[in-house]
Amino acid sequence: MDASAVTGMSGAAVALLQIMLINVVLSGDNAVVIALACRRLTPRHQKIAFIWGSVGVVVLMVALTGIVSYLLSLPYIEMAGSAMLVWIGVKLLMGEDEAGDGKVEQKSTLGAAIRTIIIADMIMSLDNVLAMAGAAHGHLWMLIVGLFITVPVILFGSALLMKLMERFPVLVMVGAALIGWVAGEMVVSDPAIKQWVDVNAAILHSISPIFGAAFVIATGKILERVNSRRRETAAAAS
């Protein structure tokens, strides 16, 4: 094997390692979303949601690699993503009605968890895709391999977080607050207002994430209480 081939292989290995490290380091919030979305599922359905949700995210991230820089340059895209994240954070915090024992309810809950994982993780991973695409230097196969290799690490982290959430319920609130925090950051980073914010109200870069986290927690808790009272009223009436 000649020197150029060895150099090429070592360069590819370094790039692949960079992609994997970037994905692991930047995917902490993705693991939180997966854990929150799956915590109410049965163990069997948790595994299914883990796998299909993660595969869906990887496929979409690879598909969006070519246009993600263009998407992030469009005005109001990040604002729309922020609004979706706030709603997802609120829904995850307030919880769903207890799933029934029937197959229809189980499948519905599983499908909702997979959709939540894919949508929320894609929104939160737009910047990650840019960083990983840069490390791949235009080699799409490196991005695909790097993503699939790091998926098990993220899934392991998600499973560990779920166990911790079961033992320490306050972590559910922390996870929802993280989603609100990211949503707050996205609002002030939108191209439609970023330049104005940078020049006239730079403090919003600090205030907006805090407000986003507080809003998700407050709204989720209020709606959770309303739903709880509604269920208690319905149970008493029946």
In short:
This protein has 238 residues and is an all-alpha fold.
Characterize the structure shown.
The protein contains eleven helices and no strands. With 238 residues, it is mainly α. The chain has one domain. The protein starts with a helix and ends with a helix. The model is unreliable at 96-105 (pLDDT under 50).
Give keywords:
mainly alpha; 238 residues; 0% strand
Summarize the helices and strands and which ones pair or pack.
Layout: H1 3-26, H2 28-38, H3 43-64, H4 68-73, H5 77-94, H6 103-124, H7 126-136, H8 140-167, H9 170-189, H10 194-200, H11 204-237
Helix pairs in contact: 1-7, 1-8, 2-6, 2-8, 2-9, 3-6, 3-8, 5-6, 5-9, 5-11, 7-8, 9-11
Strand content: under 5%
Number of H/I helices: 11
E-strand count: 0
Give the overall form.
globular
Average predicted local confidence, pLDDT: 80
Largest sheet: none
Order of helices and strands: HHHHHHHHHHH
Proportion of residues in helical segments: over 70%
Domain tally: 1
What would you call the structural class? Answer: mainly alpha
N- to C-terminal distance? 78 Å
Rg (CA only): 20 Å
Instruction: Outline the low-pLDDT stretches.
Output: 96-105
